[in-house]
Amino acid sequence: MRVVIITESFPPDINGVAHCVLRVAELLTRYGHHPLVIAPQPPGSRREESSFPFPVVRVPAAPLPGYPSFRLGLPSRRVRAAIIRHQAEVVHLASPVFLGAHGAAVARRLGLPTVAVYQTDLPSYARAYRLGRAGETFAWRWLRGIHNGAARTLAPSTVTATGLLGQGIGNVWLWGRGVDTRRFDPAKRSQELRAALLANTGAAPGELLVGYVGRLATEKRVELLAGITALAGVRLVIVGAGPAGAMLRQHMPDAIFLGERRGEELAAIYASLDVFVHSGPYETFGQTLQEAAASGLPVVAPAAGGPLDLVADGVTGYLVPPSDPGAFTAAVARLAAEPAARAAFGAAGRRNVLSRSWPALTEELIGHYAAVLGARPAKVRI
Q1: Residues 6+ apart with CB under 8 A from 45
Q2: For the chain, which end, N or C, has fewer CB atoms within 10 Å of the first or last residue's CB respectively?
Q3: Rounded distance, CA 13 to CA 366, Å?
Q4: What CATH number is attached to the domain comprising 69?
Q5: Whose CA is closest to 12, among 282, 322, 260, 302?
C-alpha cells in the first residue's frame, strides 16, 4: 500500500504527534508498505533525512507566534508534487490543522481518500490561551471542515470520540496509540541515576522521586504540581522543554528540571521514578501515561479526556479533578505514604499496557486504510 502521511510535526520535534507518525511510518515500512512523510522544515541545522527508513519531504515552515520552537508547515506546491510522485493510494492526515488542511484539499482534488487522525485538542487550546469563545468556535468550524471531508476520522479515546460526534464531526472511529514495552521497562531502574538526581539538589538519598514528562506549555498546566514540591521526603522531577519553562523554574525552584530527554536515557529516567504525575486537562490520549505505566509506575492524572481510558482509578493510579492543585498534591502524598499501593498500582499498570503494542495498533490502522480504499477507489488525477 502506498501511503502519504501529512503531519504538522515530525522529529526532531518531541511530542505525541511526531512520535506517533514516526512509529507508524517505521512499522508500515517493516510490513512491506510504502509510506512517504510530508512534514514542516525544522529550525536550524536540518536532520539528515536519510536516517529514516522511508522518504521524507519537508515543506517551508514558520515559527508559531508565542511558541517559536514549533514550526507551522506552510502550503506548498511540494505537497501535490510529492503525492503524485509517490503514486499515493491513500493520504493520512496526522493531527491536521494548517498543513493538514492544505494536504486534505490537495488529496480531494487528486481524488484520493483521506484518513484524518484527531490528536490535538485545538478548541481547548484556544480556551487555555484565552482566545475566548470566538476562538474556540472558529477552531471547531475549521476542524469540522477538515474532518468531515475525510473518509474516516480516527479518535484516540472514547471521550474524544464522543466530543467530536457532539461537535458535528461524523464517521468517527476509535484508534488508540501503542507503547514500546521493551524500551519502557521497570528493569531499567537505576539506583545510580536516582542518587545522581538527588545529589545535585542536596536532597536526602531516600527521597521519593515524582516525575512529569512532557512539553512545558500553557495548556499542560504544569504549575498545578507546585504543591508537590512542599511535601516532606518528596522531590519533583520535570522532563521537557517549552515556552513556559522559565516561568515554571521560578514558580518551582525546588523541582529538578532536566530539559528534554530521549530514547534509552528517557526510559531509564521513567523507570527510576517512584510516581508519575501528569497535569494537562486537555489530553486527547496521554502517551506519557502509557510510557509510565510500562515502566511500572503508579500514575496520577486529571479525570478528563484520554486519561479516563488509560488510568484505572484505585487500580493503576489515581484520577483527580482537573485543574485542582490540591488534589494532585493529596494524591501524591497518599502514594508517598503507601509503598505497597505504589507497587501494586505499578504492576497493574504494566500488565494493562502489555497488549498495547505499536505493531498491533499499526495493523489496526492498515485496516482503516483498506476500508477507505474499498469504499472509494484511489485514482490520482494529474
Answers
A1: none
A2: C
A3: 25
A4: 3.40.50.2000
A5: 260
pLDDT bin (cut points 50, 70, 90) of residue 312 is very high
* Alpha carbon distance 366, 337 (integer Å): 46
The counts of H helices and E strands in the chain are 14, 15
Dist. CA 156–CA 305, nearest whole Å: 10
| H helix intervals, the chain | 16-30, 77-86, 99-110, 122-128, 132-147, 158-166, 191-199, 245-251, 263-272, 287-294, 307-310, 325-336, 339-353, 358-375
Question: Tens digits of per-residue pLDDT, 282-296?
Answer: 999 999 999 999 999
Question: How far apart (Å, rounded) are the C-alpha atoms in residues 83 and 79?
Answer: 6
Residues 302, 365 share a domain: no
CA distances from 127 to 247, 283, 304, 324 (A): 20, 14, 15, 17
For residues 130 and 250, membership in a common domain is answered with: no
What is d(CA 216, CA 348) in angstroms, rounded to the nearest whole number?
A: 29
pLDDT, tens digit, 9 for 90 and up, residues 257-288: 999 999 999 999 999 999 999 999 999 999 99
